[in-house]
Design a protein that fits this description.
The chain is an alpha/beta fold. The chain has a single domain, classed as Rossmann fold (3-Layer(aba) Sandwich), CATH 3.40.50. It is about 35% helix and about 25% strand. The chain is built from 7 helices and 10 strands. Helix 1 crosses helix 7, helix 2 crosses helix 3 and helix 3 packs parallel to helix 6. The two termini are about 30 Å apart. The mean pLDDT is about 90.
């Protein structure tokens, strides 16, 4: 398996890199700053580039079997790295004939906002409003791409270990006042499991810890 991880220096992206290597994959990490990915492995290739510069992205996508997209934005950032970067990624995948796309989105995007518990809604409407708007554009582009995609919308993320214990569904019930959490490690593991499964193909699912 040849896997490209875009957004590899973020928490979930790094988990994807580490777990994919543990599974015996050949991994290409696409990063803006290689110094932020202190992982060394004989099956790991680190490529420097920028998703907003398609000419740097296309060589990374070529000859891959699948792409794991864990793009995230920064507060007060003017460029739409997540939305526009994903559009460039989709274009590169189509040009290269790569079809499988695994994506980390967020609770609060689309219909999941109405299903979110009250504490999550407050955070989404205040601290995360700009990020959620970008994720809306990202998901829209992915759904229109006709690629073989799976989108995971995690609840509040933690740096805990992978437990293998989580709830998944296109519609999940939550306790009204709880703040649901899941580890980045579990999110990465779930999406990597979709590389050879069509269970959630072209579906958007919410994922949270048990």
């Amino acid at each position: 398996m040849q896997l490209l991880v875009v957004g590899a220096t973020g928490g979930t992206g790094r988990q994807a890199v580490e777990q994919a290597l543990e599974r015996g994959f050949y991994v290409t990490a696409f990063v803006r700053d290689p110094a932020k990915l202190p992982i060394q492995h004989p099956n790991l290739t680190v490529l420097t580039g920028d998703v907003l510069q398609p000419e740097t992205l296309l060589p990374a996508v070529r000859r891959q079997d699948a792409v794991f997209c864990a793009l995230g934005g920064r507060p007060a950032q003017k460029e739409e790295v997540v939305a526009q970067g994903t559009i460039h990624l989709i274009d590169a995948m189509k040009l290269s004939g790569v079809r499988r796309l695994l994506v980390v989105s967020s609770l609060g995007v689309g219909t999941s906002y109405e299903e979110a518990p009250l504490p999550s809604k407050l955070i989404i409407k205040t601290l995360l409003s700009g990020a959620i708007d970008e994720k809306e554009k990202q998901e829209s582009a992915i759904r229109a791409s006709n690629l073989d995609w799976v989108i995971a919308r995690p609840t509040s993320l933690t740096n805990g270990p992978a437990t293998g214990k989580y709830r998944i569904g296109e519609h999940l019930p939550f306790s009204t006042f709880s703040l649901p959490r899941i580890s980045r490690a579990d999110v990465a593991a779930f999406l990597l499991n979709q590389l050879d499964s069509d269970t959630y193909l072209q579906k958007t699912v919410t994922i949270t810890g048990k």
